[in-house]
Amino acid sequence: MSAFGFPGGGAPTPPQGSFWDMTPEQQGMYSANLIMGTMQSCPGKSVMAGVTGFGLGGVFGLFMASMAYDAPVGMGVQTMSDLPFKQQMKIQFTDMGKRAWSSAKNFGFIGGVFSGTECCIESLRAKNDIWNGVAAGCLTGGGLAVKAGPQAALVGCAGFAAFSAAIDVYMRSDNKAPPSTDEDL
User: Fold this and answer.
1) Which Pfam families is this protein grouped with?
2) For a disulfide at 61, which of 21, 100, 126, 170, Cβ 3.0-4.6 Å?
3) How far apart are CA 129 and CA 169, in angstroms?
4) 3-state class of 179 per DSSP?
């Protein structure tokens, strides 16, 4: 992998002539290598994290909006129970859509920025350890909170870094060698 996760030689070259001159097995291997190279690059990882975060954020936003029993934000409604059922449903679905869209954008942005930052740091350091996630968390958290001032940026940096460290420690805890006997369990 070369600088910032871009594959060094670009796309793999077909072994002979064009793609359509290959056997089905060669086409499959060529396509698989092309997909794996894209997914292992920093832009590929960032896009995948952003798209996945967008989808999960949308589902999370729908769920959280459906659990909110208060009046929807910005609708000018004092009590929902005073409105007819059809209007209540219209307001609730509108609110669910707005909250889902907002959560989807936020989760997608955070996922893409964190993943891209972590991948770039990993490429620059040429190491895969816990400190890549901690540094990426700090940069992401601080960057997201920078508009609120330096104190908020510092708190965002510390919070995201701590959360990233906790997740990395948990995810890397299974990388131990298996026990030699059942008694070691």
Assistant:
1) Tim17
2) 100
3) 10
4) coil
Q: Computed over its alpha carbons, how large is the radius of gyration of the chain?
A: 23
How far out from the chain centre does Cα 72 lie? Answer: 28
Per residue of the chain (185 residues), what is the pLDDT tens digit? 444 455 555 555 556 678 788 888 888 888 898 889 888 899 999 999 999 999 999 999 999 888 876 655 555 656 777 778 898 888 888 889 999 999 999 999 999 999 999 999 999 999 989 999 999 999 999 999 999 999 999 999 999 999 999 999 988 887 677 677 777 55
Cα separations in angstroms, 117 against 61, 63, 110, 135, 180: 25, 29, 10, 9, 39
Q: What angle do CA 101, 97, 112 make, to 5 degrees?
A: 15
Our CA dihedral for 108, 109, 112, 113, rounded to 10 degrees, sits at -160
Is 57:105 a contact under the CB 8 Å cutoff? yes
Cβ-in-10-Å burial (0-12, 13-18, 19+) of 178 comes to exposed
Structure tokens at 95: 């609110």
